[in-house]
Amino acid sequence: MAFLADALSRIKPSATIAITQMARDLKGKGKDVISLSVGEPDFDTPQNIKDAAVAAIARGETKYTPVPGIVPLREAIAAKFKRENNLDYKPTQTIVGTGGKHVLFNAFMATINPGDEVVIPAPYWVSYPEMILLCGGTPVYVTTKIENNFKLTPEELDRAITPRTKWFMFNSPSNPSGAAYTWAELKALTDVLMKHPHVWVLTDDMYEHLVFGDFVYTTPAQVEPGLMDRTLTMNGVSKAYAMTGWRIGYAAGPDKLIKAMELVQGQQTSGACSIAQWAAVEALNGPQDFIPQSRKVFEERRDLVVSMLNQASGLKCPKPEGAFYVYPSCAALIGKKAPSGKVIETDEDFVMELLATEGVATVHGSSFGLGPNFRVSYATSNAALEEACRRIQRFCASIA
Q: For position 29, which CATH number holds?
């Protein structure tokens, strides 16, 4: 009898975590490495949020919390959805998890049966298909095109839906491409979903506040209120408030789904960290001036990276609308020889040779379901980005 669960054979480790750890290990050995692999703002958590956590400790807010979250945070979440997205949810229709990943996993665990399909546009965040597979479902990938800036078209969505489709997994702005959907683009997708009443919508809005220029953010249930009773809108404080380590994600949706997720969470982790929840209350209810400041910095970094990568021999880098990633194609370099003498046959070969030769850590696009591309996170200083891009340019120029 095998000791480990068969389910483990269906999933693989996170490529982003693996590459980031590889970069850490190389740094630990004294190698000059610039890591552009991690999806984490380089800013510190705003002081008012940290102060709220300290105050919560001083008040003795250190006990177990209700499974779906403390009442003040659930109220703050409902208020946020109304204020920023014009979505009417009662606090009881919200749930708090230990990060957005936890919320998504609980939604899949609570709803997926063997044979159920989940439609996922590619490129996708590496964890979506693994969660679905672990829960016994079947990911159905829809490959987007660089010519469409990696955005799904309504025709592509319609073709992917079958009688077995349980969920449509939607992420805008996207990790890894940074692509964000306009109101009109979303309306075209929601029109398709309205034709398929058996399909639920799970939206990952984690990068909502990181959109650039005059782009106006909208979320599916906001664009099509007819989807409210079959949409789970997920968000969190990690990216907008630089609170990745606090591990607070949240969602809102129909009562029956939230209750089902609460049932799963009650036997899994119980309530999220009490102190982190009180910090999240301050993040959502407190001053929001940190957000436009960080957005401006990220926009400048995006423009810098897109410009420099498009000057690199053999790279093509679209200019995304949001998040803090770009997703350049290295298709023109496939089949050519790296300075080490190795032939670059895949995007994984490209990023590994780049790391070994120039000490720049990025993540290969095949791990996000679409290559030959690679993901660059520009959530680091301008100086580090300029140096990293110079190294990438040098590496690309050396490929023959």
A: 3.90.1150.10
Query: Considering the domain boundaries, does residue 54 fall inside one?
Result: no
**Residues 187 and 220 sit within 8 Å (Cβ to Cβ):** no
Q: Which contiguous run of DSSP H or E holds residue 233?
A: strand 231-236
Total number of domains in the chain:
2
3-state secondary structure of 319: coil
Q: What are phi and psi of 188, to 5 degrees?
A: -65, -35
Q: b/e string for 308-341 if b means 16 or more Cβ within 10 A?
A: bbeebebbebbebbbbbbbbbbbeebbeeebeee
The 10s digit of each residue's pLDDT in 333-359 is 999 999 999 999 999 999 999 999 999
Q: For residue 396, what are its two tokens?
A: 């690309």
For residue 380, the one-letter residue type is T
Do 205 and 90 belong together in one domain?
A: yes
pTM: 0.95
Task: Identify the H or E element spanning 96.
Answer: strand 94-97
Token output for 41: 């703002």
pLDDT value for 1 = 67
The domain of 351 spans 6-44+290-395
> Helices marked H in the chain — which ranges?
15-28, 47-59, 71-85, 100-111, 127-134, 154-160, 183-194, 220-223, 255-266, 274-285, 290-310, 347-358, 382-397
Distance CA 213, CA 314 (A): 28
pLDDT (0 to 100) of residue 17: 83
Is residue 226 domain-shared with residue 296, that is, in the same domain?
no
Name the band, by pLDDT with cuts 50, 70 and 90, for residue 116: very high
Name the phi and psi angles at 182, rounded to 5.
-70, 170
pLDDT tens-digit profile of 35-82?
999 889 999 999 999 999 999 999 999 999 999 999 999 999 999 999
| Residue 27 confidence (pLDDT) above 80 | yes
Specify the DSSP class assigned to residue 211. B
